[in-house]
Amino acid sequence: MNPTKEQLLKTKPPKDVIDELKSFSDTTGKAMPDIKDAFYSILVEPYLSAIEDINDRCRQASKILLAQLAEKLSYQTASMQFKIIDKTAIKEYDRKVKKEDPATGQQIEVTEKAYMARIYGFFAGVDDSEADYPTKFGVLSLWGDASQLTPKLQIDQAYSGSFGITDHESYYALTLNDNTELPVASIDIPPTKDIITNFFTAIPVSLAAQNLSEDRGDYKLILGRIKSKRVALSKKGKDIGWLDLIDTNATLEESKQDAFKLSIMFIESPEMTLRYETGSLVYVLCELSSSENYGLSAFGQLIVPIVGIPVRKPAQPSKPNNKATTSASANSGGNQKKASVPTKQPVQHSAVPGQGNAGSGQAPVPAESPADSSTSDDTGSWSDADIDSIKQETQNPTVEEPGPEDVIGW
């Protein structure tokens, strides 16, 4: 059952959301009471009612608010061409909007489908933006009416449009609020595995603990080989994906040690963990955090296969042929825009491993299941309490839901 508006207005957000909003207030000078008011005005919006977990809803409201505030503060927009490399975490929900009744000309309330998704791609400025925005990895968020574009945008297709943009060191964060047409474009982008390291330093699994994310959105690119994968059901009925990596240069004995292993949790897109078989060599874009009680935690965003082994589908049983067969069977048988891709300076960590048996993924490695986990968002700094809740939630998926937490002012 969805909470009432009154209950939502009394909800205390999780600590990482509070810290994020306070940090924004400190950085921009915008008064915290104004930020709180804006946060709650988004939290009660009906388009968030599809998110049942209250912490999920708080984090999504915070993302929307910060995107809106950042756009208002910067007023930066750019004309871009981009090629989609993945589209994940798609959620569909119903929202009520007012439209004109063609029969009467009056405004009526109708229900329509809306979507939330995370769109990854490579973006390049065009026209007046070309000099300021060279080709770079980007994450596009569609808000409001623009969410209607989600099912129309296809992976491996290129488009053009004008977006609100924040230029981070390693990537662009882009937003679009209006349901406008994005014309199909043609942009020449090399394979993702060949250029992703132009924007992110490839970090071996064994060095992950030394490269923690400084804040939300500080993505790290981990290089490793898939040891095991699974999707677990939390007691709240939410699928959580786990991807276990081992260091590419780890020996058989080293692969059993924590220093050479990393379990990455995929919360918003658990199905992504099942795309590739054990032994696949991959980059994983994720956020890394650490705590005294729970050690290293990783929250996955995107998997980029270097040598990906696709998951084999079970063979379908052949249908009986009732016809007599006495003879052999018959044999069954525009101008592109060339994107200028910058090259990242040489990195301190090794990228793709060289030839040799070490880290080949061919030696038998005993599979070890990570602790079950369920969380409410795939980004952000995670406190000990967050991770404790995560671990407890899926240790016994059949237990009843806990009661509501006490509301504390913030």
Main beta sheet, described?
Answer: 5 strands, mixed, barrel
Rg computed from alpha carbons, rounded to a whole number of angstroms? 24 Å
Rough shape?
globular
- CATH level 3 topology of the largest domain: OB fold (Dihydrolipoamide Acetyltransferase, E2P)
What are the secondary-structure elements, in order, as H or E?
Answer: HHHHEEEEEEEHEEEEEEEH
Q: What are the low-pLDDT stretches, counting only 5+ consecutive residues below 50?
A: 323-335, 345-383, 390-409
| Helix percent band | 10-25%
Q: Say how many strands there are.
A: 14
Main sheet strand line-up: 1-2-3-5-4
Number of helices: 6
Distance between the termini: 25 Å
**Overall domain count:** 3
Average pLDDT score: 77
Which class do the helix and strand fractions yield? Answer: alpha+beta
| CATH structural architecture of the largest domain | Beta Barrel
Strand content: 25-35%
For the record, what is the CATH homologous superfamily label of the largest domain? Nucleic acid-binding proteins
* The CATH C-level class name of the largest domain: Mainly Beta
Short synopsis of the structure:
The chain is of the alpha+beta class. 17% of the residues lie in helices and 31% in strands.
Description of the structure:
The protein is of the alpha+beta class. It folds into three domains: 1-75, no CATH class; 76-188, OB fold (Dihydrolipoamide Acetyltransferase, E2P) (Beta Barrel); 195-311 and 337-395, Nucleic acid-binding proteins (OB fold (Dihydrolipoamide Acetyltransferase, E2P), Beta Barrel). It has six helices and 14 strands. It has a five-stranded mixed β-barrel. The protein has a five-stranded mixed beta barrel with strand order 9-10-11-13-12. Strands 7-14 form a two-stranded parallel sheet. A hairpin with a 4-residue loop joins strand 4 and strand 5. Mean pLDDT is 77; it is low at 323-335, 345-383 and 390-409.
